[in-house]
Every structure is written in structure tokens, then in C-alpha cells.
Amino acid sequence: MQRFNRLMAALLLLFLLLGPVVLRSLSPAGLPATIERIQIFVTIFLGIFIEAAPFLLAGSLVSGLIEVFVDPGLLGRLTPRRPVLAALAGAGLGLAFPVCECGVVPVTRRLYQKGLPPSVGIAFLLAAPVVNPVVIASTYTAFGWGWMLLGRLGLSFLIAAGIGFLFHLARPDELLLSPAPAAIPVAHAAHEHAPAGHSGPPSSHSGPPSSHSGRIWEALTTAGDDFLDMARYLILGSMLAAGMQTLVPQAALLAVGGGPFTSVVTMLALAFVLSICSTVDAFLALAFVNTFTPASILGFLVFGPMVDVKSSLMFLGVFRRRAVAYLILLPLMMVMAATTYLNLNLGG
Amino acid sequence: MMKQSFKPLLLIALGIFLYTRFANGTLLFYINQRFAWLTLLAAVGLLLVAASYRQSHRAGRQHPKHQHGHAGPPSSPPEALHRQTASWGGLLLVALPIALGLLVPPRPLGATAMQSREVNIGSLSSAPAPANQKLVTVQGEKDILEWLIDFQRIPDPAAFDGQAAQVIGFVYRDDRFTSETFMVSRFAVSCCVADATAVGLIVRWPQADALEKDQWVEVGGHFEAGNFSGEPAPVLVAESITPVEIPNQPYLYYY
To answer: What are B30-65's pLDDT values in tens digits?
Structure first.
């Protein structure tokens, strides 16, 4: 919680320092204009939050069910031993868990507590918001069958698996906030039979804690805790995104333009700032097809679901700060390199 | 322990907040109508989750294991407990959307928001046309977005000469407009207001400069080839302008 408080304090300070300057420079008409801007800010902030809340709740519910019904260690046993295969499996896991970039964070955190290796989780975290049935359907609706759909899926999968693979070189405690139970000794199997307790006699631990319905209630409570925990980051992220949208004119971003590199940078910046749910971003991307090169639109569709303002803040609830920095920078560089290359070679 | 009992209250408050937005229709100021059922579902889900705290609390007294479930990895109860027991600051932050929603009267995006957004008047580019959308818009009254999609398909402004139109939107003007023109505008939304793009038709009306910015109007008239800040564009020559209330559905939807 200390980390979180520090983060809050830093953000608050930033708002206090920059807020007055920005507001004064932007509202020559004085107070009424400022009030109108605040109203726009609140509308956009609530828009993002209300749109994302159901998805975050769904992710938390999945997390709660995993907590109660998935055997710890099971995931560890199921994961392929070879790091490459493990990363590929992680990137494909989204096909089984249709979550967007808000829901994926609590699910990933829970999977870590159930012993999923960090590299697999990272591949899952980055790929699942795109490589899942819902997003495939919405992208198909927007762009039809073609290389935009295939490119989005393929590039997301490869980049996510690649980054996951890179992270297998790191130790879990270098990445994660709370030590993952995977780090618990091999005697884990014995624990499952008689989980020698810390807080009570073994008898109170063995077997299901109560009836089936009791476990469902327990899953719901866990989901509630997860939701409240993650909602803090979602709210901070939504505020940041809404603030940027209110203060930075889109024209300023769009004016940057059309070159093979600048178009990519513009679309990636837009993806980061707008923080739109991956289930619908394809429809927004359509609005840019005539203004921007196809490859930069592809960049928008691949990068946005992996990293944006609100999901980066949510990452802070799972990973150490340095890991979060890598999780933002690595996808950014990879997507930038891939789409700039496409721009130069498609004659775009 | 105080905090633990505050959590379900917060979840209930959030659920009720979402439900009231849904019930009084202001939900449509924030998101696309097609996602409204998700908000309703979330409201129900939040109440259900809140109820589980009571149930789990009861079960927890009989089964200490319950605390485990909460506390995360059994290897480190103190640390894990620390993580899950959210700080007061964190919980208050979650109450922020409710507070802001109650303090700031809900209002859809309007003319001021257009200053920081791209405006689409169809002649320039960029009105999206989803791949599978039917190619001919049905006859009858077209809204601003449907006209723009038509303009996009037929880039010749003269092609619309004489066609009658009846549209609703808010008044927008900036220094590109003469005293006889304004834009009747709407925001088009695919998901939530975060992705809103402004769309509008150029309207010619002798008393255009007498119209209040942000006033919602119904404009009736016919199209004529004209131009707007140097670019050729179909211009709606108004025959009638009637002030109207903000429609229940302030935004137009791309799909």
C-alpha cells in the first residue's frame, strides 16, 4: 500500500503543479470556460469508467473462480517446460479466456498466485486482449476478412510471445509485487494433501471449506476484493486519459501527420492516450483509415490493447515498477519497428 | 475490520450508481446504447458480490480456511493480508466516480468539446464506413452521420443538389464560419465518449450569428453545392430552424 500511496502522492503533486498552469493557458475566457472543461473531463472520465467497469468485474469474477476452484500447482504442471513453448502457450491462452485489457489484469494476477510462470503470464497479459474470440469478431466486423485482421492477430501473438520469452530470463521476485507461490518449494504436492496450516490445525484446512455454494460465495468475495483493488488503478488511469483528452487537442496529434515513421508514432500515441477497450477499438480505427497509412492503423490495433494509460496503471498493481517500464517500452519498440518496416515496404 | 465492512457498502453504492444512470437515461451521455445491458449486468453483479461479503463472513467464522482464500499465498499471510486490505485512500478513490457523478450534473459533450477534437464534415475524409455496412442507407430521414457517409461515397458535392434534409444537432461556430453559416453538429460514438468524434453539416441561414452556441436545433432545408473554408462541400440551405430539447440519445452511433 505504501507504493500505492507514494504513487498517489506523486500524481496529486503533478496535478497541483501543472493543473493551474494548464487551465490558465487554455481558458482565456476565464472561469466559465474552466467549468465547462471540468464538465467535459468528468463526462469522459465517467464514460471510460462506466464502459470498463463491467469488463473489470468480469475479469475479477474469473479471478475469484480461479482462486477457489483451480488447484495450485496445476498450472505449473500443465505449462510446457521449454521456455519458447511456454511463451507461445501463454500467448494463445486468451482463446480460452475471452477478456479485454481491463479484465486480463486481475486474471493474470490470480494465475500468478496459482503458480503460473511469470513469462507465460506476461505473454498472456499482452496477447489475450487481442487473441480472443470477442475481439476477433469485432475486428472482423470492422475490417472484414483480410490482412488487417490477420496482421493484428499475428503481430500481437508474436510480440506477446516474444516478450514473454524474454521475461523468462528474469526471476519471479524481480518482476512481481508479491512473491508467487511458484517459488514455494517442491514439497508443494504434499501441501495439497495436508496443507499444514499456519493459522490453525490441519483438520480445519483439509477438504472443501464448506458446501459448494459456500465456495461460490467465497469466490464472489475474492472477486469483490480484486475488483476494488484493481478499480483504483482503473480510476487513476481513466482520470489521466480523460485529462489528456480534455487538454491535448486531437488536431495537435493528427497534424503530426503522414510520414512512414511519424504516422506510426501518431497512431501509437493516440492508442496510448485514448485507452479504448480492445473489444471495440477496431471501430474507432476505421475513422482513421483515410488519414493514416494501413500499417500505422495496424500499430494502433496491436499496441493499444497491450499498453495504454489505464492498463499501464493497472500493471502497477501486479508488477514491480521496473517490470512495468519494460512492459510499456518493449511492446512500443517492437510495434514501432514492425509497422515502420511495413510502411516502408508496402509503399504506404 | 472497519475497512472490511466498508467494502461491501462501496460495492453496493457503485452498483446503485450504475443502476440509476441506466434507469434515468443519463447512461447514454457516457456510452453507446448497445453496451447499456453490460452496465445493468455490472450493477447486478456488484450487488451480488457485495452480498457475498455477508455470506463469506458467516462462513469465515466456521472455517478459518476462508481467510486463506482471501489472503492469497499461504506462505506469507502477513504480507498477503497487507496487500488485500485496501487503504482508506484506495477505497475513497473508488468512491470518486460516484462523488463526481453526483456533484457534477451530467451533460453530454457539446460545442466546447469540439474545440479539442477533429470535426468531420464529410468532404475532407475520414467518416468511417464499416466493411459490412449496407451500401444504400434506407430512405426516410437521415441523421447527420448518415448524410456524411453518403457524402463520402459520392465525393461530388453537386450530386446532392436539391435533396431535402431534416436533422437535429447542436449549434457550433468558430472563426471559419461567416455570419450566415454555422454547423449543426453531433458527436458520434462507437464505444464510450472517450472515442467520440464530432460530425456536422454546414448550414446556411441568414441569422446564423444570432444562434446560441450549444443550442440544440432541428434544421430543415435542402442541399446545394457550396464550399467551406476553401473546400467544396454540400451546404444545407435552411428553410426552418426550430430550437429543441437535448434528445434522449445525444450521440449518434457508428454501428
So the answer is: 998 988 999 999 999 999 999 998 887 666 555 444
Answer whether B67 sits within 8 Å of A288, measured CB to CB: no
Average pLDDT across chain A, whole number: 79
Q: What are phi and psi of B222, to 5 degrees?
A: -140, 160
A79-to-A61, A76, A106 alpha-carbon distances in Å: 23, 5, 20
* pTM, 2 dp: 0.78
Alpha carbon distances (Å) from A141 to A172, A342, B30, B47, B132: 39, 24, 23, 34, 7
Find residues 93-152 of chain A whose CB sits inside 8 Å of chain B. 113, 141-144
> Mind telling me how many Å the CA of A173 is from chain B's nearest CA?
14
Using one digit for the tens of pLDDT, what is the confidence trace for A290-331? Answer: 678 889 999 999 999 999 888 888 899 899 999 999 999 999
Q: Which residues of A touch B51 (CB under 8 A)?
A: 220
Q: Which of residues 164-223 of A touch B (CB under 8 A)?
A: 177-181, 184, 191, 195, 197-200, 204-205, 209-210, 214, 217-218, 220-223
Cell of A214: 459456500
B85 CB neighbours in chain A (<8 A) are 1
Q: Grid coordinates 502457450 are at which residue?
A: A89
- Cβ distance B112 to A36 less than 8 Å, yes or no, reads yes
Chain B neighbors of A272, CB-CB under 8 A:
none
Q: Is A161 exposed, middle or buried (0-12, 13-18, 19+ CB in 10 A)?
A: buried
Number of Cβ within 10 Å of residue A327's Cβ equals 23
**pLDDT tens digits for A137-192?**
888 877 888 889 999 999 999 999 999 999 988 888 888 887 544 333 333 333 33
Give the type of residue at A79: T
3-state secondary structure of B153: helix
In contact, A75 and A111? CB cutoff 8 Å: yes
Q: Which residues of A touch B195 (CB under 8 A)?
A: 274, 276, 280-281, 283-284
Prediction ipTM score: 0.84
Task: Say if CB A87 and CB A119 are below 8 A apart.
Answer: yes
Nearest to B158, CA basis, from B226, B70, B81: B226
Angstrom distance (rounded) from CA A256 to CA A295: 16
Distance from CA of A196 to the nearest CA of B (A): 10
Q: If contacts are CB pairs under 8 Å, which of residues 308-347 in chain A contact chain B?
A: none
